[in-house]
């Protein structure tokens, strides 16, 4: 039986562990700076099992004043074990708006499947962030069992 999963706010001491599980941060100082700033602002949270950081999320509220899960990463060997779902639920718990947004590349099928399971709906596309691999934007309406918008409002397309 696996050790219990603990979700908690990230601390500066966690930064090295976050970099080790994030291939982009391993080679991009800008990503490390982004993580450090998110930790300092209290926007970064980690999943820890048996004292080891196995994943993290960053929840910001600068996306048109809505919650935006800007980063969600799980260590390669711990993927498909419920950690991503647990981190997303923590983002929902911390979210201060009625909608939680996130995004992923069109090529990232595992993340798209996770978002569908968690009740997110695709609501937009951003081209040219990664040329040739569009960024798909997703939304989840909080406070309901589905990702449907509140009564009387249509999904933007």
Explain what this protein looks like in three dimensions.
The protein is built from 5 helices and 7 strands, in the order βαααβββαβαββ. It is α+β, with helices and mostly antiparallel strands and 157 residues long. Strand 6 (121-126) and strand 7 (135-141) form a beta hairpin. 28% of the residues are buried. The chain has 2 domains: 1-74, Gcn5-related N-acetyltransferase (GNAT) (Aminopeptidase); 98-157, Gcn5-related N-acetyltransferase (GNAT) (Aminopeptidase). The protein starts with a strand and ends in a 16-residue tail after the last strand. The protein is 29% helix and 33% strand. The chain has a 7-stranded mixed β-sheet with strand order 1-2-3-4-5-7-6, with helices on both faces.
Hey, roughly how much beta strand do the residues contain?
A: 25-35%
Name of the CATH class of the largest domain: Alpha Beta
Structurally, how many domains make up the residues? 2
Major sheet size, sense and barrel closure: 7 strands, mixed
DSSP summary, beta strand count = 7
Per CATH, which architecture of the largest domain?
A: 3-Layer(aba) Sandwich
CATH topology of the largest domain: Aminopeptidase
Cα(first) to Cα(last) distance is 44 Å
Structural class: alpha+beta
* Net shape: globular
Mean pLDDT score: 90
Cα gyration radius (Å): 16 Å
CATH superfamily of the largest domain: Gcn5-related N-acetyltransferase (GNAT)
The neighbouring-strand order within the major sheet is 1-2-3-4-5-7-6
Order of helices and strands: EHHHEEEHEHEE
Helical fraction: 25-40%
The number of distinct helices, counting runs of at least 4 residues, comes to 5
Poorly predicted runs are: 150-157
